[in-house]
From TrEMBL:
Presence of keyword Transcription regulation: yes
Family annotation (PANTHER family): TRANSCRIPTIONAL REGULATOR, GNTR FAMILY, UXU OPERON TRANSCRIPTIONAL REGULATOR
Presence of keyword DNA-binding: yes
Alphabetized GO MF terms: DNA binding; DNA-binding transcription factor activity
Protein name (database record): Regulatory protein GntR, HTH
Organism: Nocardioides simplex
Domain HTH gntR-type: 4-74
Keywords: DNA-binding, Transcription, Transcription regulation
One Pfam entry name: GntR
Entries under Gene3D superfamilies matching the protein: GntR ligand-binding domain-like, Winged helix-like DNA-binding domain superfamily/Winged helix DNA-binding domain
Length: 241
């Protein structure tokens, strides 16, 4: 276990140095020979550390002459993967994600009513309007459904919520796991989104939380009634039930 521990400690040092230097996306890190001298580690340990950071989305390893590690901006992908694996090995069903959203998203809507910027509010309205204008197109509906919840999560002003919702929605992709949205259901979702938007636009935290709680509850009721087997199916990394 010592090489793995050493590689992890080195990865932490590299990230600390990225922050210390103020590196931004696209900046190249020192070449391998410089890093080997600076960190006084073996080539295998350094490469293991860099590979770990690449998997976490912190860097990209560019091949060829002039290549090497390049700073990137991590997103929720690795978080979604980690959560999926944890839940899979816990034999957790997809219902777990839906229930978690029911607990988290009302709080996000409440905070968004207090903190969301005018630009984010306009983006939220655009999502509601675009969903309405394309209710006959399920692909647009699904895209706007995710966008709506993403905007609220990031508009909460709490970075943790933003990443969590990105990850949870990535795992609970209704179309991928077999939950269908007929037009009557799409109309109901749009109506709920409009109610949530109006409460947030009025800067009413309690009404925003209540509207979101009702929206998630209605989704759960619909899924339990129409797709109970889907919600009961175990979460599996990379595939739906």
């Amino acid at each position: 276990m010592r090489p793995q521990k050493t590689a992890m400690l080195l990865a932490q040092r590299i990230v600390g140095d990225i922050n210390r230097r103020g590196n931004t996306v696209g900046d190249r890190l020192p070449p391998e020979r410089i890093m080997l001298e600076e960190y006084e580690v073996g080539r295998g340990t350094l490469r293991e550390s860099l590979r770990f950071l690449e998997l976490q989305g912190v860097i990209a390893l560019k091949p060829g002459p002039g290549g090497g590690p390049v700073v990137q901006s991590p997103d929720s992908t690795s978080l979604a993967t980690s959560l999926t694996l944890l839940l899979q090995f816990a034999n957790a069903p997809f219902r777990t994600i839906a229930e978690a959203r029911g607990g988290l998203e009302p709080m996000m809507a409440q905070l968004a009513a207090e903190r969301m910027s005018d630009v984010q509010l306009a983006d939220l309205k655009a999502s509601v309007d675009n969903m309405h204008d394309n209710l006959d197109d399920q692909s647009v509906f699904l895209e706007e459904n995710k966008r709506f919840h993403d905007v609220i999560a990031h508009g909460s002003g709490n970075a943790m919520f933003g990443y969590l919702v990105d990850a949870l929605l990535g795992i609970l992709d209704g179309s991928a796991i077999g939950i269908d949205y007929p037009e009557v259901r799409r109309v109901a979702v749009h109506k709920a989104h409009l109610s949530i938007y109006e409460a947030i636009a009025e800067r009413d935290p309690a009404a925003s939380a209540d509207a979101m709680a009702d929206h998630i509850q209605q989704y759960l009721k619909y899924a339990e009634k129409k797709f109970p087997d889907v919600l009961a199916a175990p979460i599996v990394w990379g595939t739906g039930p």
